[in-house]
From TrEMBL:
Residue ranges the record marks as coiled coil: none
Signal peptide segment: none
Pfam families listed in its UniProt record: Fasciclin (PF02469)
InterPro entries from the UniProt entry: Adhesion/Biosynth-related, FAS1_dom_sf, FAS1_domain
Region annotation (Disordered) ranges: 229-252
Protein name (record): Fasciclin domain-containing protein
PROSITE patterns in UniProt: FAS1 (PS50213)
Acidic residues bias: start-end ranges: 230-241
Residues of the FAS1 domain: 48-217
Length: 252
């Protein structure tokens, strides 16, 4: 009888072993399905990229990425830096029109100048820009106050709001790789670059910072719309010829 009980216990133990092994395997799979720290790596992945690498993988910057490659600036934006890049979105390029963009892509010198006009040597966060603009505006106001004679006209100007035309607005300048200055300002907490608005600020990379803007900045001396503006327009000679032709028809 005891032998029978012992034999039954051994059989039950053998039958239970596969279930225990299966449960252990399933437990291990669940434990390794989501590696620890994966969320933190996703949050910080841009800090492991260069400026060029980030632009190349951002679906909102595909037209800028194409322009960077055509102009041969990938190596520059992939280099040591640090740089600050005001990156026009795809919508900013679309606003120029396909004809203008195609013209720009075919004019490498102008394309390079336009792109370099968006790049500043050094790293400037939105907080840095706000601080710089505020300091420079404060210095200008102090200088203006020292030069003012404090006459009756100044008093009335202040009462009528003449000194508050730029209230809430601070401005400074940054020198770009194109050799031209950019006016950067903050108005009610909104960062502006020339007439463009920063729609996404402080994308940190290994060699600088990116701010996405809603317009393509055009440096002085570059006319991107010349071809489109003259397209379809009659030249003065053609207009004169038509007028003369009409006059002849009337006389006859």
């Amino acid at each position: 009888m005891r032998r029978w009980i012992t034999l039954c216990a051994c059989i039950l133990a053998l039958l239970a072993m596969p279930f225990a092994v299966t449960a252990a395997v399933i437990g291990d799979e669940n434990a390794t399905a989501t590696p620890m720290g994966e969320t933190e790596q996703m949050d910080n992945q841009t800090e492991d990229m260069t400026i060029a690498a980030y632009i190349e993988q951002d679906e909102n910057l595909t037209r800028l990425a194409e322009a960077v490659n055509v102009a041969g600036l990938y190596d520059t934006l992939n280099g040591e830096g640090p740089y600050t890049v005001f990156a026009p979105s795809n919508e900013a390029f679309d606003a120029l029109g396909n004809d203008t963009v195609n013209q720009l892509m075919n004019e490498t010198d102008n394309l390079t100048m336009v792109l370099e006009y968006h790049v500043v040597d050094g790293e400037y966060t939105a907080e840095n820009i706000t601080s710089m603009a505020g300091n420079q505006t404060g210095e200008q106001n102090q200088t203006a106050g020292n030069e003012s004679e404090g006459g009756v006209l100044d008093i009335f100007s202040g009462l009528l709001g003449g000194e508050n035309e730029t209230a809430g607005e601070n401005m400074s300048t940054l020198t770009t790789l194109a050799g031209e200055d950019l006016n950067v300002s903050t108005t009610d907490g909104e960062v502006m670059v020339e007439n463009a608005t920063v729609t996404m600020a402080d994308i940190n990379t290994t060699n600088g910072v990116i701010h996405i803007i809603d317009q393509v900045l055009v440096p002085p001396g570059v006319n991107l719309t010349a071809a489109e503006e003259t397209a379809g327009e009659e030249t003065p000679t053609e207009e004169m010829a038509e007028n003369q032709s009409g006059m002849v028809g009337v006389v006859q």
